[in-house]
Amino acid sequence: MRRIEVRRGVVRYEKERSDLVQEAVIAMAQQAAAVLEDDEAAKVGVLFPQWTPGTAYKTGERISDEAGNLYRVIQDHTAQADWPMDQTPALYTPLGVTEENPEEIPEWRQPLGSEDAYHIGDRVKYQGKIYECTEDNNVWAPDVRGWTEVAE
Predict the structure, then answer these.
(1) pLDDT in tens, 73-104
(2) How far apart are CA 109 and CA 141, in angstroms?
(3) Strand, helix or coil at 38?
């Protein structure tokens, strides 16, 4: 609750201790999430900044959609309302975890360059099988090189 004081027609809101504690907990959680690897960060995507049209994004930033699904920015740009994250793979790549199924392994997608290339430990589904990446900056399909098939 916030206390309201009215003086000379002015309404003033003061934060109570519980509000300050809640803000501190959120700030600490956001700081901790910022250093997580992508697979773990995707499980707490709601702690990352939410995509907003008109915002300037830098390559490598991680941002979330309204549902808390996490994406990585592929190239510097200013977001536009007609460039939604889930429909512009040249600007954003999903980090594979969705609100509905946080353990989901994403389908393999052809990287557009080194910005969205796969890294050691990344897992993908490809032609009905699951593969784990064995080299950094991998842009190859799992049936070409740099991947090991893993059991489900």
Answers:
(1) 988 999 999 988 888 878 888 886 555 555 67
(2) 8
(3) helix
Q: What is the pLDDT of residues 13-57, one digit of tens each?
A: 788 888 899 999 999 999 999 999 887 888 899 999 999 999 999
Q: Which of 96, 91, 84 is nearest to 112 (CA)?
A: 91
**Residue 146: pLDDT band with limits 50, 70, 90:** very high
CA-based nearest residue to 121, from 102, 146, 143: 146
The SS3 assignment for 39 reads helix
Q: How far apart are CA 2 and CA 17, in angstroms?
A: 10
**Enclosing H/E stretch for 87:** none
Residues 102, 93 contacting (CB under 8 angstroms)? no
Pairwise CA distance, residues 85 & 94, whole Å: 8
Measured in degrees and rounded to the nearest 5, phi and psi for residue 40 equal -75, -40
Name the residue among 61, 108, 110 with its Cα closest to residue 85.
61
The residue whose two tokens read 């991947």 is 147
Q: Is 147 helix (H, G, I), strand (E, B) or coil?
A: strand
